[in-house]
Specification:
The chain is an all-alpha fold. The protein has one domain. The protein contains 20 helices and no strands. The longest helix is centred in the last third of the chain and has 33 residues. The termini are far apart.
């Protein structure tokens, strides 16, 4: 067995490789254009129809990926069929993006994670979600070719965030952490709790982490100048025009923001709320440069307060565990997470290349990699760190690919913001949206250090949609920059 201390230099090597890989990929990014092939004019009409229907087909088959069944096999088979239709109709299998290589490596490690899992059935659901996320990413990137299609996709994304919040209100397994909020959640109906994996309801930490991806784009759009929120020019059918204009209306944005942010508060997820607060600080830093000194002072004070609170919480948690008491609230504190991380590191050191298998950690933790403060009967669910979870599920190669996704996406956003005028001077609406997506990515990254959403949960598909928006934003801003220079 490899000593777990060797994982420290291994992690540093992975971070350096991921950064270099991300930089190489984003430097090669160019506005996407459809290759002109001689055979494109002779493709069958069915292939062209399938390509146009790819995104609706993926949306309609989403339940088959969220809830695995024998029909899920047919849905999986449809993905290469759609890609093959694109090859026949347009001359390329997948659109070129800066994330191609890390996605390819992740896709390569998915069957490895299934094969090494002690029980194949454990990882099937997680594998199908990852495959669907990759397919959704490429479908969106391929579909978003101009401002009109981008606005339609953005509106659907924001509506999906609102729908997720509504579903969470009637299907979450609420926890009682703060009396006032706890009383409110106890009064909510639990109609959709059977949709969760264990039939008890959605975990509030997962719900809160996923809502971060919707809250900050909404907030950034509301902060953009009023002149940027005028309705777009009519284009296409009446339905598509209405969808495209939805993200420009102040009232729909306010309603969706209140719904998603309100649900986030009701989850009482301290990690997600703290990450959201950090995200608000970053968005304020970008939006109002003259207040940056005050924001920096506030950030330092907040970090100090959180550190003190964590120290006190760890002390109380150790006393609780020492007394032989254990509850859901105790399992979620920072002290128990440390034990979970140590168990995850032992598992990674034992299987660094291939990992221990998709969704295997929750089953192997009690027997093979036990944690002192976690009873054998408690389902820990995941490693409570998204990067440790990636290494557990997909090995260190999968961790390299997953980390590269984050670095490459962050670098694309950084370049978009750095190459345009400051937000406070009234830059285009897309730049405000880029700031909102960057803030969402930042808040989600922080939350992922103590919890996992992307690698283990059904709402993780929204992460892949957000990556597609980042790629599409880079595409559109590059096109705009080129047109300005001409």
């Amino acid at each position: 067995m490899i000593n777990w201390l060797l994982l420290v230099p291994a992690a540093l090597v992975i971070i350096v490789l991921a950064f270099l890989w991300a930089r190489t990929s984003t430097d090669q990014f160019e506005p996407r254009t459809f290759p002109r092939h001689a055979g494109a004019s002779r493709v069958a009409g069915l292939s062209a129809i399938l390509v146009r229907a790819e995104l609706p087909i993926l949306v309609l088959t989403l339940p088959l990926f969220l809830f695995t069944s024998p029909w899920t096999v047919l849905a999986l088979a449809a993905i290469p069929l759609l890609w093959g239709a694109r090859r026949l109709a347009r001359g390329y299998l997948l659109p070129h993006t800066p994330l191609d290589w890390p996605i390819a490596l992740m896709a390569l490690m998915i069957p490895v994670g299934l094969l090494v899992s002690p029980y194949f059935s454990w990882g099937v659901g997680r594998a199908t979600l990852l495959i669907y996320g990759i397919a959704l990413y490429y479908a969106l990137v391929d579909w978003i070719v101009n401002r009109h299609t981008f606005d339609i996709a953005l509106s659907l994304y924001l509506l999906a965030g609102g729908a997720m919040a509504l579903l969470a209100l009637i299907g979450t397994d609420w926890q009682y952490k703060f009396p006032f909020l706890g009383d409110l959640t106890q009064a909510l109906p639990r109609i959709a709790n059977t949709l969760s994996r264990d039939q008890t309801g959605f975990h509030p930490n997962i719900v809160a982490g996923a809502l971060l991806w919707a809250i900050f784009p909404l907030l950034a759009l509301l902060l953009s100048p009023a002149r940027e929120n005028t309705d777009p020019a009519p284009s296409g059918s009446r339905l598509s025009t209405w969808l495209a204009s939805l993200s420009y209306g102040r009232l729909p944005l306010v309603i969706l923001l209140l719904l998603t942010a309100g649900t986030l508060v009701l989850t009482q997820s301290r990690g997600a709320i703290a990450s959201a607060a950090a995200g608000v600080g970053l968005l304020a830093w970008l939006r109002w440069p003259r207040f940056r000194p005050a924001i920096a002072v506030g950030a330092v004070a907040a970090v100090a307060l959180v550190s003190v609170a964590l120290t006190l919480e760890i002390s109380v948690a150790k006393q609780t565990v020492a007394a032989g008491q254990f509850s859901v609230s105790a399992a979620e504190n920072f002290a128990v997470r440390i034990d979970t991380w140590q168990s995850a590191l032992r598992a990674i050191s034992a299987h660094p290349v291939e990992g221990i298998g998709l969704d295997a950690f929750r089953h192997l933790l009690p027997t093979t990699y036990p944690a002192a403060s976690i009873p054998d009967t408690y389902d820990i669910g995941h490693a409570h760190n998204q990067f440790l979870q990636a290494a557990l599920d997909l090995g260190l190669p999968g961790l390299l690919a997953y980390l590269t996704l984050w670095i490459a996406a962050g670098r694309m956003l950084w370049l978009m913001l750095a190459r345009n005028t400051p937000l406070s001077t009234g830059s285009p609406r897309t730049i405000y949206l880029a700031a909102g997506v960057a803030t969402a990515l930042f808040a989600s990254f922080l939350h992922g250090m103590i919890d996992v959403v992307v690698m283990v949960s059904k709402p993780g598909v929204l992460f892949w949609a957000m990556l597609a928006f980042i790629t599409a934003l880079g595409n559109l801003t590059a096109k705009q920059r080129e047109s300005t220079l001409q």
